[in-house]
Amino acid sequence: MRACRRCHILTDKTVCPFCGKPTTEHWQGYLIVIDVNRSQVAKKMGIKMPGKYALKVR
Ligand SMILES: [Zn+2]
What is the pTM of this model? Predict the structure, then answer.
């Protein structure tokens, strides 16, 4: 799995399917967001879509 450097979403692509930025293999921890409006972490990270996200991306 790779993580987008900008929006942190996890993907197997080398380019993020959502924002088009390059992805990286260097990430740590992940977060599953189901309800964006109820997740404080999602709000803090600026997540707007449900999905799997990396907590830390280098
Ligand atoms: Zn992205």
Answer: 0.86
Q: What is the pLDDT along the chain (58 residues), one digit of tens a residue?
A: 999 999 999 999 999 999 999 999 999 999 999 999 999 989 988 899 999 999 999 8
Q: Residue 44 Cα, ligand 1 centroid: separation in angstroms?
A: 16
Domains, the chain, in order of start with CATH, read 2-57 (2.20.28.90)
Q: Rounded CA gap, 49 and 22, in Å?
A: 19
CA 8/CA 52 separation, integer angstroms: 9
> From ligand 1's centre to the CA of 4, what distance in Å?
5
Q: Ligand 1: distance of its center to the CA of 53 in Å?
A: 10
Distance (Å, rounded) from C-alpha 8 to C-alpha 36? 14
